[in-house]
Structure formats: structure tokens, C-alpha cells
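Standup notes
- DV: blocked on the single-chain target, sequence here:
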Amino acid sequence: MPAPPAAQQPQATAAPPAAPAATEAPAPAAPAGDRASLVVAYNSPEKWANWGGVLKAFSAKTGLQAPSDPKNSGQTLAALKAEAAAPQADTAYFGIVFGIQAGDADLLAPYKPAGFDEIPAGLKDPEGRWMTIHQGTVAFLVNTKVLGDTPVPQCWADLLKPEYKDKVGFLDPMQAAIGYSVATAANLALGGTLDNWDPGIQYLAQLKANGLQLPAQTATALVQQGEIPILIDADFNGYQLKNNNDAPVEVVIPCEGSIAIPYVIGLVKGAPNPEGGKKLLDFVLSDEGQALFAQSYLRPIRQIAMDPKLAEGMLPASAYEKVIVPDYAKMRAVQEQFNERWKAEVVQ
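- DV (later): unblocked, structure below
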């Protein structure tokens, strides 16, 4: 599948013969009754990343119920904090910055599934509190039918033009990992750094003045329906709309550059069903789980055999040459500073 060049995207190393053992405190007593057959996976929307298909296959394989959960990364983190004294979830999935934050807040328990050692060092917690399972790229998802004769935007700068007024949106960066990734991508592409947000904040304020929409929940249906004709989101969501849903959607990697967006998962500390949660982590890193995520045009974190037909529905590798892998720990460290500037200077 197309991906950033080797110099820009972390590469997995060969897997060891056997998985490392879990490094975890003694597990609580087995959950009673129905909870023993239920795995609660926070932030697993059915239409996002093929979570619906992944959880269905997991249930068929294990006999455990695993319903989809509609939370986003910010809502998941808030729920874990609120429930810390009596956790309700077994696993939690986030954009990487929110996953780092959850680990730092001691909300996740260490566990290392088979395949953990194949994940590049910068894309996992060394103790196994969180780990990347797949990646995407920040891109423009453009409904060409709604735009009509208006040109498809190719660059971040294009979105400020009058012809795109009220036509652009992305998820609220204070609520969703993809939203903060969009803001970071714009800032870095326009000459900013993680220590200098001036270019990005100035740009985002101009975009807001041009009618930027900021939904809180997964918004791919809105671009398909034309309510947000230009959604800045994960490339894989656009490929899925175009190839699986026959939507009139074009995926654009902005000309000035973009960033990779890893997604991570972890076992919830004090989970009601930790053994079930571990089985889900085992499954999402297995060949079967990784291949199921790839059906939604995500790049698996492990090097597995891929269906070559998937690549035919994506942009060529050359389109990803300006995609970079930022310092995600640094992104996490400066997120609150960004939030304050976002509130004061963009959405005031």
C-alpha cells in the first residue's frame, strides 16, 4: 500500500520467535456473570477503521461479545479519568497523543501481545501501556460532486480562498485526536514547529473566519452527504468512502506537506475483564486483525501480507513524499499550550 518513504516512516523490525510475557500486576478476580463474556472496547466506532468488522471477527474467534463504542479519543480519555476508581472499559483506543496522555495518567496497564516487538520504539510505550496498531495520514477528503466546477483544493493555502467559504471542516482538536493532528500538520507544513505555533494558529484563525466547521464526532458521513464538502481527516476514511461506498470523494495530500497519524490501543488499568481485554489486544496485532484494519486502507503497524488490490484504490507512494513523522511525545507535551491558543485565538 502507498506509504511515506522509508526515510520518513518508521519501519518494523522482524518479530521474535515468541511473544514477550505480559508485565502486569496480579490480575483481579475473574468478572462474574455476563461481564466475563463481554469485552468493552472504548472508542471503536463501527464505521471507523473497520472496527465493526474487527470486533465481529474477534467475537466469532473467541466467543466474547465486543460491541462497538462511539467515543472519540478525547471522550475516551475523559471517561477513563472519570471512571478511574471503578473502570468500566477493558481496552481503550486513541490517537497516539491521547494514548500517551492516558499512559502518563496511569490509566492503562502494561501488556505486551504477540507482535509487540515488531512495533517501532517511538510508536509504543516500552512497558506495553499503549502500542500503535495502524497508521494513516492527514489529508483532504473532497466531495467533487458538491464542489461541481470549483477546483479540488491541492494545498493548505487553497482552503482560505473565498470559493471554499463554509465548505471546510475537521474534528474539534480539543475533542478528537485527528483534529489535533490536522492542526499540527497545518502548522508544520506552513513553517511552524512544535515550539512555534504562530504559523498554524494564524492559519487556523483565517480558516475559522472562512467558515470552518468543527464537528465533535466522526464526520465521514458528512463529507459523503455533502454537508462538509471538504473534510480534513485521515486518508483511509476517504479511500473507504471512494472505494467501498462509491462516494464521489477524492483524497488529496496537501502540497505543502502533512503528517502520519498513528493510532494506539491499551489495556485499561483495573479493567473489569482484563483477560478478555488481553485477548482483544492479541487479536488486533495478529495477522488477521491487522489485515482487517487494512481493509479500511490503514497501514498496518506489522509487516503482513497485503491484498494488492487495496493499493490500486489509493494514491501512489509519490503523493506521500512530503509526509513526515513528528515527535509524538513532544506533540503531547505541547498539546495544552496549543489548546489555550486555540481557545483564545481561533474559536474565541
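- Follow-up: The chain is about 35% helix and 15% strand.
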